[in-house]
Design brief:
Layout (H helix, E strand, L loop, with lengths): L1 H8 L11 H26 L3 E3 L3 E2 L10 H27 L9
Antiparallel strand pairs: 1-2
Helix pairs in contact: 2-3
Length: 103
């Protein structure tokens, strides 16, 4: 789809940036944040039952660390919902509007 669009636009005009590229950068940034969220869940799982890894143990009932699959589903679900909201905002922004002339 992207290749077909590039072919239909023709030659490259240097210095001209496509309007949609701004939104692609937003999605790339939030994909990095999604990855960082998953990395944070893995980091929390590494120090399970410890406040400080192998230094200060915590075996109380309140020391709960969710499993990696549980954390991954929540982080992914939140990210997908966020992508849907941002995609809707982008579609509203890119929608062609008919400007009404003065009467």
């Amino acid at each position: 789809m992207i290749y077909k669009r590039a072919i239909s636009q023709g030659t490259i005009v240097w210095g001209k940036i496509d309007f949609i590229s701004q939104f692609v950068l937003i999605f790339l940034a939030f994909s990095a944040i999604w990855t960082m969220g998953l990395m944070g869940a893995v980091r929390s799982l590494l120090r399970k039952y410890y406040h400080t890894y192998n230094l200060l143990p915590d075996f109380t009932a309140e020391s709960f660390t969710p499993t990696l699959s549980y954390s991954a589903w929540w982080i992914t679900g939140i990210t997908v919902v966020f992508y849907a909201v941002v995609s809707f905002a982008i579609l509203v922004t890119l929608r062609p509007s008919d400007s009404k002339g003065h009467a």
